[in-house]
Amino acid sequence: MTKQVRQLDRVVIRFAGDSGDGMQLTGDRFTSESAKLGNDISTLPNFPAEIRAPAGTLPGVSSFQIHFADFDILTPGDSPDVLVAMNPAALKANLGELPRGATVIVNTDEFTTRNLARVGYTSNPLDDGTLDGYVVHRVALTSLTVKALEGHPISKKDAERAKNMFALGMLSWLYSRPHESTISFLERKFAARPELAAANIAAFRAGWAYGETTESFAVRYEVKPAHLRPGDYRNITGNTALALGIVAAGVRSGLPVFLGAYPITPASDILHELSKHKRFGITTMQAEDEIAAVGAALGASYGGALGVTATSGPGVALKGETISLAVALELPLVVIDVQRAGPSTGMPTKTEQADLNMALFGRHGEAPVAVVAPRSPADCFYTMLEAARIALTYRTPVLLLSDGYLANGSEPWLLPEVDELPDLRVEFATEPNGPDGQFLPYLRDPQTLARPWAIPGTPGLEHRIGGLEKADKTGDISYDPANHDLMVRTRAARIEGIDVPDVEVEDPDGNARVLVLGWGSTYGPIGAACRALRQRGLSVAQAHLRHLAPLPGNLGEVLRRYDRVVIPEMNLGQLAQVIRGRFLVDVIAYNQVRGLPFTAAELETMLEEVVKNA
User: Cα dist. 281→303, 305, 331 in Å?
Assistant: First the structure.
């Protein structure tokens, strides 16, 4: 059957079902094929905290949203153009976010009386007018999959589980996605069970054939490749980018790398990915707890390695004492905090930016550290390199604040040339540096205020370490009040003196009166909102902070250029409080703590009001 092909510039699709329905895998494969085609992409996985939440319930709904386009995009989309609902729970959990006119594809096999009642439906939404105003496609996904797999030597349960591949094949046909790499992926994934590989491939092809032959779909869609910078790209998540950034930091510094970590959502993938790269001089250790993980990483730094630990907010709280020890020892250490919704266990699979205060101030005594934050999944790679540069150059702990949105989301990443990455090589102390031939472990570099880094066992460079206050230059234990005051101020000056680039301002018109200042993962929604306002003729400026401690040297001057400064954050105003206290600027804080990223539309509405009243 010849069907009409319609060109689109962008589409947002959300796959939703039970946590056991394979929605994350389905979305990931659709994303990979879209990246292979050359679209710009941005994704938002969203899943329950429980490993297997109760089937068919609202808390058990797992979803994966992908935004793909033929132009540069910044967010995974505010709302879906297409919802694939594998059961009534998925429909009910997501229908409220669908705009009128959106497409809904439902698995009719799951809309039984029992399943409807489980989520509070008193009548079938497919028949009672609930979906009036939407384009609805009723597809018996489960039974069609089972029918397609008749004759395959697998159980009925395994056949039913392949319905996500049927759905993937159908959507791949509908949006003209390539499919060769999905077939190869399934062959690799089920290499030990060839009968499952064959069944899932058959289900995928059956879904493709269904789309091609059914009268339900009269139109097929195409989204052309985006016009991106020339080069080789790969689809990458924030956690994978951090792991590869750690590898690159080891290569560019020439140092062995040690990662000590304890599994914790949403940071565990960093440990998983990094464990695959031992050939680059990487050692990974799954510690018995968070304290052991950071202690081992700090010990590795003392021994001459680049010590790294990765965790989330609860883990950073446990690591606080050892981070303070690293401040006193003045040794390099990178602490990655993939933030999640708190306090306590909170909502482990949901995103938040509420660890900034802890990163800046959450240690006993005067214990300043450097703090950096990536703005996108791909930027996690470069922010990790920057964290390593600061840690190695200034002999300090560095906290890197990612979050669950960046960790699990993905986008195309332009592969860099290795030779163009920063040179992170360091020089260890090899000779005594004192006037009388002794080694002074706290004799500082006049430019960086960093102390020498001496590998244990180097002849003549024996020195004392520990948490007790050190005497200036000699490193002897000291309780002298004047010395303590000197050391505290020197450690603070070392952090404030870190060389960081000036903050850049995006102000195309040059006459904006409102500046939107962000940090971390708010970059995409803020950027999309500012784009939309400019397209409507409203002037607004945007600036984004990678360096949160120390802040860029020109930030105060930038803030004073504008009549209004707006700071959107996924917390209750933590950066806003810092900016008010540091620069005496009465910023407008716009805050939410829903466990979800901002939408561009809500920021656009808020900023429009501020711009018109400025």
Answer: 15, 10, 20
Please give the Cα distance from 565 to 542 (Å, whole number): 10
In this structure, what token pair is assigned to residue 20? 């056991």
- 314-329 in b/e burial notation, b at 16+ Cβ within 10 A? bbbbbbbebbbbbbbb
CA 331 to CA 323: how far, in whole Å?
A: 10
CB 66 within 8 A of CB 84: no
Q: What sign results for the dihedral spanned by CA atoms 86, 89, 90, 92?
A: positive
Q: Please answer whether residues 334 and 260 qualify as being in contact, where contact means their C-beta atoms are separated by less than 8 angstroms.
A: no
Judge contact between 375 and 546, C-beta under 8 A. Answer: yes
pLDDT tens track for 572-604: 999 999 999 999 999 999 999 999 999 999 999
* pLDDT for position 1: 61
Q: Return the DSSP state at 271.
A: H
What does each C-alpha distance from 88 to 135, 178, 340, 341, 611 come to in angstroms?
17, 30, 28, 27, 42
* pLDDT interval class at 423 (50, 70, 90): very high
pTM listed for this prediction = 0.95
Other beta carbons less than 10 A from residue 457's beta carbon: 9
SS3 state at 206: helix
